[in-house]
Amino acid sequence: MVSVEKVRHKLWNLLHALCHDPKRLVRGIVLFICSIVVMYQLTDCFKKLCNPPISTHSRFDLNDSMLYPAITFCREPAYKADVMAKYNLAMHPKYTSSFDRFPFNESSLEQLFGEATYNHSEFFIQHGLNGGTNNINVVESLHLDMGRCYTLNPLITTKHSWKEAGYSIMLRHDTNITRVSVGDTPPGWHVFIHDETEGFAENRMQSSGRVEYLFLEVNEEMEIRLSTQHFFMLASYENECVEFSTVSSTRVRRNFLLVPQNSFH
Q1: What is the pTM assigned to this prediction?
Q2: CA-CA distance, 24 to 18, in Å (whole number)?
Q3: Is the pLDDT of residue 245 over 90?
Q4: Residues 6 or more apart from 93 whose CB is under 8 A from it?
Q5: Cys-Cys crosslink for 125: which of 33, 36, 170, 200, Cβ 3.0 to 4.6 Å?
Q6: Digit-coded pLDDT (tens) for 173-198
Q7: How far apart are the C-alpha atoms of 203 and 208, rounded to whole Å?
Q8: Is the pLDDT of residue 64 over 90?
Q9: Where does the chain cross the membrane (predicted)?
Q10: What is the band of 257 on the pLDDT scale with cuts at 50, 70, 90?
Q11: By the 8 A CB rule, do 154 and 135 touch?
Q12: Can you give the three-state secondary structure of the chain, one letter per residue?
């Protein structure tokens, strides 16, 4: 075995030789520093292989086209006062005692809601997008509190924004019938601005945070300018994402609530 004295003697001779030969000394210092750097880089690479880093990539894409949001209109009051009186009902069917005197033997609820709510021609004067009336898909929905509502979904994307290319909508309201209002809300329209995939839900808690709400009174003109932001999650090997989806939590909950109770076992 090599003794400690021999090792110390060899190191001393090596140090003495390096001090008398500057080139060899510089070469040794450079080799020592390079060895430390290489060891540090190798250690860092092994750490990344064992624990892959999470990176964030941000970029700005200027849109060549613009997709407008969907707009849902609900009338206030939602029901016709003369039709409700015809069926011995109050101004609104949401009250618990509203159907005490309803003639169930002579009429059906489908007939009631069909007559008491407002159809498309009674609701709109005209509507269009980007200068065309065929650029909108109108979806009708019936709700207990809001009555018959209409959702305007855009069918095209536009190249410009503001008045020349945006929505242009004129609504119809019969002020003679709406002299009597339900509650403190004046005659007008409830306006809900939302994404097309979200749909419209009467339950405010169900669509909270996804809908912008406005109220438009009768004989009032309103101009709206919106700023929108879209966020997309990038797909990965473990988490696959769909770039465009027609499914939303609002529609899933609404479809779940519409399932008949006798279908559950």
Answers
A1: 0.65
A2: 6
A3: no
A4: 79, 84, 99, 112, 144
A5: 170
A6: 886 544 555 567 888 999 999 888 87
A7: 9
A8: no
A9: 25-43
A10: very low
A11: yes
A12: CCCHHHHHHHHHHHHHHHHHCHHHHHHHHHHHHHHHHHHHHHHHHHHHHHCCCCCCCCCCCCCCCECCCEEEEEEECCCCHHHHHHCCCCCCCCCCCCCCCCCCCCCCHHHHHHHHCCCHHHHEEEEEECCEHHHEEEEEEEECCCEEEEEEEECCCECCCCCCCCEEEEECCCCCHHHCCCCCCCCEEEEEEECCCCCCCCCCCCCCCCEEEEEEECCCCCCCCCCCCCCCCCCCCCCCCCCCCCCCHHHHHHHHHCCCHHHCC
* Length of the chain in terms of residues written: 265
> Which tokens belong to 172?
């119809």
Closest by Cα among 150, 137, 153, 141 to 189: 150
Angle at 235 between CA 230 and CA 241, to 5 degrees: 70
Q: Cα(first)–Cα(last) distance of the chain, in Å?
A: 85
pLDDT digits (tens, 9 = 90+) for 69-123: 899 999 988 999 889 888 888 888 877 677 888 888 888 888 999 999 999 999 9
User: For residue 260, is the peptide bond before it cis, meaning its omega torsion is within 30 degrees of 0?
Assistant: no
Rounded CA separation 175/161 (Å):
33
The pLDDT value given to residue 151: 93
- Mean pLDDT value of segment 153-177: 80
CA-based nearest residue to 187, from 93, 65, 69, 74: 74
Taking Cα atoms as reference points, which of 122, 76, 91, 72 lies closest to residue 217? 76
